[in-house]
Amino acid sequence: MRTRKVLLVIGFLVTWTYATYYLLLRQTGIHTSRHQSLQAYKLNSQARDANMQSHHLAKNVFEFVKLKYLEKQPPSVASTPQISIIAAEISAELPEQHVAKSATARIPTKTYLANGEPVFPVVVFACNRVSVKKCIDNLVQYRPSVEQFPIIVSQDCGDEPTKEAILSYGKQVTLIEQPDLSDITVLPKEKKFKGYYKIARHYGWALNTTFAVGFEFVIIVEDDLNVAPDFFEYFLGTHKLLKQDPSLWCVSAWNDNGKAAVVDAAQPELLYRTDFFPGLGWMLTKDLWAELSVKWPKSFWDDWIRHPAQRKDRVCIRPEISRTRTFGKIGVSNGLFFDKYLKHIKLSEDFVQFTKINMSYLLKDNYDNTFLRRVYTYPIVTYDELRRNLIRIEGPVRIQYTTREQYKRTTKMLGLMDDFKSGVPRTAYHGIVSFYYNKRRVHLAPNANWKGYELSWS
Questions:
Q1: How far apart (Å, rounded) are the C-alpha atoms in residues 322 and 258?
Q2: In the chain, which residues have pLDDT < 50?
Q3: Strands, E, within 358-438: which ranges?
Q4: Using CA atoms, how far apart are residues 398 and 410, in angstroms rounded to an integer?
Q5: Within 10 Å of residue 349's Cβ, how many Cβ atoms?
Q6: What Gene3D superfamilies does the entry give (predicted)?
Q7: How many distinct helices (H) and strands (E) make up the chain?
Q8: What's the pLDDT tens digit per position in 82-129?
Q9: Could you read off the pLDDT of 145-193 as tens digits, one per residue?
Q10: Helix (H) or strand (E) holding 273
Q11: Are 149 and 143 in contact (CB under 8 A)?
């Protein structure tokens, strides 16, 4: 139905063009004088030029709709934000030069390399922080291939100094600009959260625009992140898991409990499955975006994506040692958690050749048959025994929790993040939070008869 409406608008535009041309031609048919004939000739030429320009505009608009809406995506991908963008561009009768500067036309269009490997666009979300240069510098420094990892910086806000900083990289990066900079009307009590509404709108537009090209994967990076030397290798080594295992829906480079004191620096290659969506440098597939885009929220997209209605018991891959680290204390969240947790996150300095590691241990059946089974064979200890090194046996141990209050009290003592999102503790898998403490692997775990997450714990 929406497709028919769009085509009707195009049909009206073409009809109007030819009707205008016909009326102008009729005016030139009255030859009352040589002077009028000359004027008529000029008018006729102008009419022809106008007709050609209007016809060209109609053709461009039709091709744009055909590429962006009718051909490139299955019906499930055509989200409301994307349709709104198309409708706005048609109704405004954009001049040709504006169409030429559209974001879709400027994004690299190669989706696979000659050897069959996919292209992974890295979309950097920026707004009004010139410090985005720190992020881009890092990405450019460690990028192994310009062709396989095109960097696309998507800017909201329209901040000129930030735009100039991005453009200073020339052909090393591609700049696309969020076209909708209009204010967002919110309820008075939501006014302080308006920034989150704009972020969600920006994410929806940028991901629609990028996936419309035909990429299989997109890597998302915020403008306040530094990346590790093997950041790109990490995603090269794990992307196939997203296609192999339907229980996986993202790969994240972030460990929420990645402070230096609670990670094993000797195991930079170690990866986990987690029920918690980490974000902060993550990869998703076009199939997942096709599912999420049709119901993309107006604000707080990261909390929304963690809700059971979206997660559907799917999990992410996350590292023992983070491959990203945030330097952005100032932002929409006003430095939430930064001083206490985020600034202490350890960024991996090693280069792990993930593409040469067998990742099959992360597939659901393999992981559950090893990780879950082993955790509940480890001896139960108390926090005090762990802290005072009173445990006489070697190897991993388990600290058990049964209530929300017990979990929060234990994590605070251990220096871990103690909050829940949709009932899920950060980094947890089946309620188990794994970390490293006093040179020992520790699993903070619920009872063996655990029945699932409780939304009331959030």
A1: 6
A2: 2-3, 6, 9, 14, 18, 21-38, 40-44, 47, 51-52, 54-105, 334
A3: 397-400, 420-421, 424-425, 433-436
A4: 12
A5: 11
A6: N-Acetylglucosaminyltransferase I, Domain 2 (3.10.180.20), Spore Coat Polysaccharide Biosynthesis Protein SpsA, Chain A (3.90.550.10)
A7: 16, 15
A8: 333 222 222 233 333 333 334 443 799 999 999 999 999 999 999 999
A9: 999 999 999 999 999 999 999 999 999 999 999 999 999 999 999 999 9
A10: strand 271-274
A11: yes
Listed by start position, the domains of the chain span 2-99, 105-358, 364-457
Cβ 212 vs Cβ 245: under 8 Å:
no
DSSP 123: E
Label residue 417 exposed, middle or buried (CB < 10 Å: 0-12, 13-18, 19+): buried
CB 271 within 8 A of CB 238: yes
Annotation says 384 is catalytic: no
Contact assessment for residue 268 and residue 202, using Cβ atoms and an 8 Å cutoff? no
Quote the pTM value.
0.77
Copy the structure tokens of residue 287. 């199939």
Task: For domain 364-457, give the CATH superfamily.
Answer: N-Acetylglucosaminyltransferase I, Domain 2 (3.10.180.20)
Return the CATH class of domain 105-358. Answer: alpha beta
CA-to-CA distance for 275 and 254, rounded, in angstroms?
A: 13
Distances (CA, A) of 164 to 93, 103, 130, 220: 28, 17, 9, 22
- Three-state DSSP class for residue 352: coil
Nearest-CA neighbor of 123 among 25, 203, 233? 203
Within 8 A by CB and 6+ apart from 56, the residues are 96
For 168, which DSSP code? T
Place of tokens 């062709």: 147
Residue from 302, 303, 368, 418 carrying the catalytic annotation: 302
Among candidate residues 262, 279, 273, the one with its CA nearest the CA of residue 413: 262
The tokens of 18 are what? 């030819």
Local structure of residue 260 (DSSP, 8 states):
G
